[in-house]
Amino acid sequence: MCSTRSPWTREASRLGVARNTGNRSLERLRARVLERFDTFRRTAPDLLVRAQRFLAPPVPEPYAGEPRLLHADLTCSHVLDDGPTVSGIIDWADTEVGDPAVDLAGLWHWGG
Questions:
Q1: What pTM, to 2 d.p., does this model score?
Q2: CA 103 – CA 70 distance, rounded (Å)
Q3: Per-residue pLDDT of the chain (112 residues; tens, 9 = 90+)
Q4: What is the residue extent of each domain of the chain?
């Protein structure tokens, strides 16, 4: 095990938290959005514009850093807030170890 991993990641791996198999890679998330563009055109044209900016080349290189502990389903329904402050993150059922940008993709999906 690499010594540069965070204590959380080491502990998650020790406890058997799954490693991301690519289902939630940025490229896979990008492909899923592209598959739904026709729906966006009809129902949410403003979201389509934001999505097109996000999906425009260049596509980021695959993550080459040390895997990190991820929530892996970080969307608005899992973020608790108390006004302007985040007060908690719930529903860690999809927790995995992998590319930290996966969690940022969920937040982007929520708020752009």
A1: 0.57
A2: 7
A3: 334 557 777 788 888 888 776 666 667 777 776 777 777 677 777 777 776 776 676 767 778 888 888 888 888 888 898 888 989 999 999 888 888 888 887 666 666 5
A4: 7-111
